[in-house]
């Protein structure tokens, strides 16, 4: 369990103060995966640095299973940091070391006996599906395999928390899915508490149990995936169930009101539009639609255009009575996109940076 309470980080830029984190509070239960999504400059990297104690928060607290990290003395920082495994966008492996040598590195740093290191490294490589790759060098591995080595290294110190900073942003879609499945599997098997920093909504969709939207240092939306996805006013819902921009279809309905409708759970099983068309005796055109299963529940997001003579207020009331979120919309409102939050991809994939030191 990781708990962040009222975390604040202020940087001094010359005479100016920059508030990078402003009262961030979140809590992630053991065995679950929390996604943090946000635009560039939102404070994601600052949050990572505060969680890994690379940066001291200005105020507020971070605790892991009840142990307060922010009050740890400098001499104990290394030990505290070992409770957090870090997975980076580029695996940051040491080129001069084999897969086994990379995974061994954090264990060598704390002077683990040699034979213990050997068995532990074999265990870890097996855990991430890399049995038989002990002696391969990073240059001989695919991007996905390198990330697996990075994950094995992050797990070497038996951490409670896995902190993944854009773990799949440098991978192709198929490899992304593989790595996310691995992270999900490890979360359950090892009962880890996992935070994934990402700008990709697909990552959130595939593995996160809950999600926070970070904006200008503040968490502006958060919740279980199935809760945020059911609310039309939520930016996260709009990004989870994106609708393409659309133009009114030329023809009979061209000047009618446009509605956005979001239904979930039981209401997703009802023939809602047919109900509206029958009840009000009007025609309806679907302009755009998105249907997803999130967290085991079905969600649908539609943009529809009603006949010009439709009684909009009555239709909205009819839908809301049935537990369906609906509101008048612009025909072409685009879905929010967090892609500009992507960190630069030109960072070299290597470097002697090691892992959990
Ligand atoms: N070391 C620093 N000194 C001064 N300002 C910083 C420092 N690190 C980050 N900032 C500022 O804090 C804000 C959040 O940055 P960052 O955490 O890097 O955002 P993100 O990772 O979401 O893009 C930005 O306005 C950034 O300019
Ligand atoms: Mg960043």
From TrEMBL:
Biased composition (Low complexity): 329-344
Keywords: Amino-acid transport, ATP-binding, Cell membrane, Membrane, Nucleotide-binding, Translocase, Transport
Any GO molecular function: ATP binding
Matches recorded under PROSITE patterns: ABC_TRANSPORTER_1, ABC_TRANSPORTER_2
InterPro entries for the chain: AAA+_ATPase (IPR003593), ABC_transporter-like_ATP-bd (IPR003439), ABC_transporter-like_CS (IPR017871), ACT-like_dom_sf (IPR045865), MetN_ABC (IPR041701), MetN_ABC_transporter-like (IPR050086), NIL_domain (IPR018449), P-loop_NTPase (IPR027417)
Region: Disordered, residue numbers: 329-357
PANTHER family: AMINO ACID IMPORT ATP-BINDING PROTEIN (PTHR43166), METHIONINE IMPORT ATP-BINDING PROTEIN METN (PTHR43166:SF30)
Protein name (record): D-methionine transport system ATP-binding protein
Species for this entry: Arthrobacter ginsengisoli
């Amino acid at each position: 369990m990781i708990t962040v309470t009222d975390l604040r980080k202020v940087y001094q830029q010359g005479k100016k103060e920059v508030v990078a984190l402003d009262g961030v509070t979140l809590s992630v239960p053991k065995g679950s995966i929390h996604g943090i999504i946000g635009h560039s400059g939102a404070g994601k990297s600052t949050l990572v640095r505060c969680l890994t104690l690379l940066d001291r928060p200005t105020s507020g607290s971070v605790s892991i299973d009840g142990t307060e990290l922010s009050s740890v003395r400098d001499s104990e920082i290394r030990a505290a940091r070992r409770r957090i495994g870090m997975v980076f966008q580029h695996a940051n492996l040491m080129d001069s070391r084999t897969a086994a040598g990379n995974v061994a590195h954090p264990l060598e740093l704390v002077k683990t006996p040699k034979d213990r290191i050997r068995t532990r490294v074999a265990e870890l490589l097996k855990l991430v599906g890399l049995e038989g790759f002990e002696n391969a060098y990073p240059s001989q591995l695919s991007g996905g395999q390198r990330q697996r080595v990075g994950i094995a290294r992050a797990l070497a110190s038996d951490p409670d928390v896995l902190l993944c900073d854009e773990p799949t942003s440098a991978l192709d879609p198929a490899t992304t899915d593989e790595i996310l499945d691995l992270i999900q599997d490890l979360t359950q098997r090892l009962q880890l508490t996992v935070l994934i920093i990402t700008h990709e909504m697909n990552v959130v969709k595939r593995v996160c149990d809950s999600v926070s939207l970070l904006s200008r240092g503040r968490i502006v939306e958060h919740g279980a995936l199935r809760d945020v996805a059911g609310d039309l006013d939520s930016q996260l819902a709009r990004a989870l169930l994106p609708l393409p921009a659309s133009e009114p279809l030329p023809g009979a309905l061209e000047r009618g009101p446009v509605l956005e409708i979001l239904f979930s759970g039981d209401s997703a099983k009802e023939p809602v539009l047919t109900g509206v068309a029958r009840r009000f005796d009007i025609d309806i055109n679907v302009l755009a639609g998105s249907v997803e299963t999130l967290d085991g529940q079905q969600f649908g997001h539609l943009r529809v255009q009603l006949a010009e003579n439709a009684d909009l207020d009555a239709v909205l009331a009819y839908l809301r009575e049935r537990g369906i979120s609906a509101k008048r919309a612009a025909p072409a409102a685009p879905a929010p996109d967090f892609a500009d939050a992507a960190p630069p991809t030109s960072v070299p994939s290597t470097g002697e940076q090691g892992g959990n030191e």
